Amino acid sequence: MSPLWALLALGCLRLCSGVNLQPQLASVTFATNNPTLSTVALEKPLCMFDSTAALSGPYEIYLYVLVDSASSRNASVQDNTKAPLSSTFRQTEGGRTGPYKASAFDLTPCSDLPSLDAVGDVSRASEILNAYLVRVGDNGTCLSDPNFQGLCNPPLSAATEYRFKYVLVNMSTGLVQDQTLWSDPIRTNRLTPYLAIDTWPGRRSGGMIVITSILGSLPFFLLLGFVGAIVLSLVDMGGSDGETTHDSQITQEAVPKSLGTSEPSYTSVNRGPALDRAEVFASKLQD
Ligand SMILES: *[C@@H]1O[C@H](CO)[C@@H](O)[C@H](O)[C@H]1NC(C)=O
Ligand SMILES: *[C@@H]1O[C@H](CO)[C@@H](O)[C@H](O)[C@H]1NC(C)=O
Ligand SMILES: *[C@@H]1O[C@H](CO)[C@@H](O)[C@H](O)[C@H]1NC(C)=O
């Protein structure tokens, strides 16, 4: 049994046991750097709704998205008749005023999950990942059409906490059959100064920048010292001793000061997370 299978089996145990289940963030084995600025990859609710018996008849899973807030902790996704809400991203201001439906999909039955052995075949990797994962926020097509009525799954806001819920909808009745709990809050990534500014591939170290900035500012301090010396020699005409001591004091104070002020600002620029990569690394599956 490969480590990946062990991981999936664990995931299934976590999802398959108990009744009060929550959507989970996709494993790093599948999706690196998740969440990104605008997407969240979740594990599909495999073996959740059909853990005890196979589902009969036509059904779909709906995924609802909600911005986390105190008043929305257990918002309902169905109306009085148990019909699932059809509110869209636009109607709910991106999940701020209520849950919106972001995705609808069929599930592979628990007993019939696609074999990961076939993932070595690169042409099948995305199909197989698709069976295991759903990515919220990965399709902004609908935003370009103001009259778009269908399912809309546009990019999420950065640095925002979202909750997610899966709902099992019986397509022959059109009603909610079952549902998970709301997930714990999941925060999208924050745009850091590093992501915005630094494009040099060989990320500079903080120390290197401090040295560069000190070297860059040395001529300035030498000039300052020189001007200071001239001023002092004009003010204090008494003897050459005083002149040299004042000169060296100014240069010695100036350099440590530049160390203290330039270091924090430059290192914070460099301390961002690695560049956002939304891709799922299929190659990681091959072991
Ligand atoms: C959907 O509803 C029908 C009629 O009530 C029922 O027979 C069927 O088992 C339901 N399907 C699921 C997946 O629960
Ligand atoms: C939210 O939860 C509280 C207590 O847990 C419950 O009384 C209330 O009915 C719930 N609201 C909804 C909309 O489910
Ligand atoms: C994106 O959404 C549009 C409309 O909702 C749909 O037609 C299109 O197939 C979707 N694209 C992808 C890559 O899922």
Helix content: 25-40%
Q: What ligands can be seen in this structure?
A: 2-acetamido-2-deoxy-beta-D-glucopyranose
**Major sheet:** 5 strands, antiparallel
SSE pattern, N- to C-terminal? HEEEHEEEEHHH
Give me the secondary-structure category: alpha+beta
Q: What's the tally of helices?
A: 5
Beta-strand portion reads 5-15%
Tell me the Rg in angstroms: 29 Å
CA-CA gap between termini = 10 Å
Descriptive terms for the model:
signal, alpha+beta, 5-stranded antiparallel β-sheet, 287 residues, 5 helices, elongated, disordered C terminus, 7 strands, transmembrane, binds 2-acetamido-2-deoxy-beta-D-glucopyranose
Give structural notes:
The chain has 5 helices and 7 strands. The protein is α+β, with helices and mostly antiparallel strands. It has a domain at 19-191. A hairpin with a 4-residue loop joins strand 5 and strand 6. Helix 4 (206-235) packs antiparallel against helix 5. The chain starts with a helix and ends in a 17-residue tail after the last helix. The model is unreliable at 1-19, 198-204, 207-212 and 242-287 (pLDDT under 50). The structure holds 2-acetamido-2-deoxy-beta-D-glucopyranose (NAG) (3 copies). Residues 242-271 are annotated as: Disordered. Residues 259-270 have a biased composition (Polar residues).
Topology:
Layout: H1 3-16, E1 40-43, E2 59-67, E3 100-105, H2 122-132, E4 133-136, E5 161-170, E6 175-179, E7 186-187, H3 193-197, H4 206-235, H5 240-270
Antiparallel strand pairs: 1-4, 2-3, 2-5, 5-6, 5-7
Helix pairs in contact: 4-5
One 2-acetamido-2-deoxy-beta-D-glucopyranose is lined by residues 55-57, 59, 170, 172-173, 177.
